[in-house]
Amino acid sequence: MSNMSQVTDALQADSELPDADPASSPGHRATEERILDAALRLIGRRGVKRLGMQEISEAAGVSRGTLYRYFPSKDHVLAAAAAHDEQRFTDGLDKVLAPLLGPNERIGAFLDYAFDYIQTHPARSLFESEPEFVMSYLLDHLPKLRTSLVTQLGAELGALPAVARGDLSRDELADVIVRLFASSWIIPDSDDRTLVQSISTILLSAPH
């Protein structure tokens, strides 16, 4: 089991976190999000190993006591930050796809959004300094991305030429797309926009 999975399981198993009763209040959620956003920014600048609770509290603009009331340890912060990051991706994708109806439009918007998200992600720069963290993160979250892709764009994937011709199943195509995401994390392209355009051409072009 990966380190991030162990941390996430520990967080989910902890049923006695402070502030459990008011956790659904707007004020509580706003403070929690501020802490997690600050943690994500710091991860990109400092890395995970050197990240400290004092730094997180200062970056979030909360006292250290408040931080510990929300998150008893750095491991709890990291697990919650990963879940928060996943939710940010999903919410943003929902917003981008909502006004679009055509299959090609929706697939193209998904690719643009996903690769922009990867390009600006704070953890992307950590592969050389903390590869174990990045690999653990990818192992935990890429399967969820695949599930989200099939759930939200299943019909559109089925309409793409490669699937319509029977060259690939819908699930196999989703696997290919997710593997491309993983490779862009590990081996950043010198021109991400060209990479997105190339992938869009391959996925959306009809056979000659």
Describe the structure.
By secondary structure, the chain is mainly alpha-helical. It folds into two domains: 81 residues, Arc Repressor Mutant, subunit A (Orthogonal Bundle), CATH 1.10.10; 109 residues, no CATH class. Helix content is 73%, strand content 0%. The chain contains ten helices and no strands. The protein is elongated, with a radius of gyration of 19 Å. The chain starts with a helix and ends with a helix. About 8% of the residues have low confidence.
Topology:
Elements: H1 3-13, H2 26-46, H3 53-60, H4 64-70, H5 74-97, H6 103-119, H7 131-159, H8 161-164, H9 170-186, H10 192-204
Helix pairs in contact: 1-5, 2-3, 2-5, 3-4, 5-6, 6-7, 6-10, 7-9
Instruction: Give me the Rg, rounded.
Output: 19 Å
- Spans of 5+ residues with little confidence (pLDDT < 50)? 6-21
Number of domains: 2
Counting H and I runs of at least 4 residues, what is the number of helices? 10
Please summarize the sheet with the most strands: none
Record field, number of beta strands: 0
Distance between the termini: 46 Å
Mean pLDDT: 81
Order of helices and strands: HHHHHHHHHH
Q: Which structural class do the helices and strands define?
A: mainly alpha
Question: Helical amount among residues, as a percent range?
Answer: over 70%
Proportion in β-strands:
under 5%
Using the alpha-carbon principal axes, give the shape: elongated
